[in-house]
Amino acid sequence: MAGHDPHSIRINDALRALRALVADPDDTAQVFRIIDALSGHNAERTVKRVRRSATGRTLLTDKPAILEKLLDRTTLEKLPENTFGRAYLRFLDSEGITAEGLRQASIDGRRDAAKDTDPDLTFVRDRMRDTHDLWHTVTGYKGDIIGEASLLAFSFAQTWNPGVGAIVLTALIRGNEPSVRKLIAGGFARGVRSAWLPSVKWEELLHLPLETVRARLGVGAPVPYVPFRTAAFKPRQAA
Q: What is the largest CA-CA distance in the chain?
């Protein structure tokens, strides 16, 4: 019997995870399960693009441990109030989350992580996971349902990951207000216009003013919206 192909598209797995995510939007592990089931060779294509840029090649050579810096609250708290690093801490505190929590959700959601044999692929995949909340901070999207969907739309424009696209499409279909759909679609548009974030050297930006970082990366000003928290979410009963 042939072994499991880690690049195969697993529609049934994705649908099960998508239904679970709709029922409980706080179940972050389901996001990783959907992405894992539908990504195919998307991660390899992302790595190839990272290799095509000078900064990306430097990242792949040095493989800096961004998670260590993001977990070092003592150092981040010493940064001036207006810096990107301090804004990142404020985002974590406002959402009641940690960088380590996102890492664990990824481990829970991916069944083939241990089968990665390309160290560059492992590095890029882990780095994108570990910097997810930096993307939140720089774009201004909060960690609510609408903010997450908008950031995923931004991410889809950057990576064209089919799993991310499936989640965004579901959010657009279920978004029952034009303003919500507009915000999510706006996330995609911002992702198209922005610098390509997977090859950004985030380590060199944490000490800079947040507005300077936003201007440098071309993400534009945050779009004001009213967050929709899961406490107000009432899942629909399956037919």
A: 59
* Distant-in-sequence contacts of 49-58, Cβ < 8 A, 24+ apart: 49/196, 49/198, 49/199, 50/120, 50/124, 50/198, 50/199, 51/120, 53/196, 53/199, 55/199, 55/200, 55/201, 56/198, 56/199, 58/201
pLDDT for 176 equals 77
Q: What is the pLDDT of residue 32?
A: 84
pLDDT of amino acid 110? 57
> In the structure encoding, which two tokens stand for residue 72, read together?
């070092």
Cβ atoms of residues 59 and 199 within 8 Å:
yes
Q: Which residue has the tokens 């977990």?
A: 71
What is the Rg, in whole angstroms, of the alpha carbon atoms belonging to the chain? 18
The CA-CA-CA angle for residues 90, 93, 96, to 5°, reads 150
Structure tokens at 53: 């840029």
Q: Give pLDDT < 50 ranges for the chain.
A: 1-3, 109, 114, 235-239
CB atoms within 10 A of CB 108: 14
